[in-house]
Amino acid sequence: MKITSSEFVKSAFARDHWVGGGLPEIAFLGRSNVGKSSLINSLLQRKGLARISNTPGRTQSINFFLINGSFYFVDLPGYGFARVSKAKMAGWGRMAEEYLSDRGELMLSVQLIDVRHDPTALDHQLNEWLVFNQKPHLVVATKADKLSGNALIRQIQAIRSAFEKSDVIAYSSISKRGRDELLDRIGAAAKKPHDFS
Fold this sequence. Notes:
Blueprint: E1 6-12, E2 25-30, H1 36-44, E3 62-67, E4 71-75, H2 86-102, E5 106-114, H3 121-132, E6 137-142, H4 149-162, E7 168-170, H5 179-190
Parallel strand pairs: 2-4, 2-5, 5-6, 6-7
Antiparallel strand pairs: 1-3, 3-4
């Protein structure tokens, strides 16, 4: 799939702020410091479309980006490192789960894992939820450029073992490793027959 256009549409802090229009949606989710914004920007080949912060947990909303005028990238709040109150964290968690549970337009969930570290309990919890609820998804191991060949192979194998029921793609926002494969998977999901009426 080729990206021909991309634009930020809106940030939503509540369900009634989600975009309408009935276009397919691809959601990106993962820990607060996993490189979600960098991955989205590298997929779209846009430097600052998704905002990158040095402060984990800065994304406090669900952000919608219109791609090729035909489907959305949806950037969900990160989990795990945000330095905010437990009440705020619980609110973000509820909003993300509500979106994942109820959003008919959601065609694919892309769960991001930092390839340098073993998956956390929260990573496992999210993956188990996606599998249990039969949500189309895949796991993307980010920051693949940070490890050498053998170390990267070992870590990818460990992530595949941890998430046996999920496809795993190694990805680097720097070298663009995995970009074509991920775009092909996204394109196929966005073109699946759907009826959101």
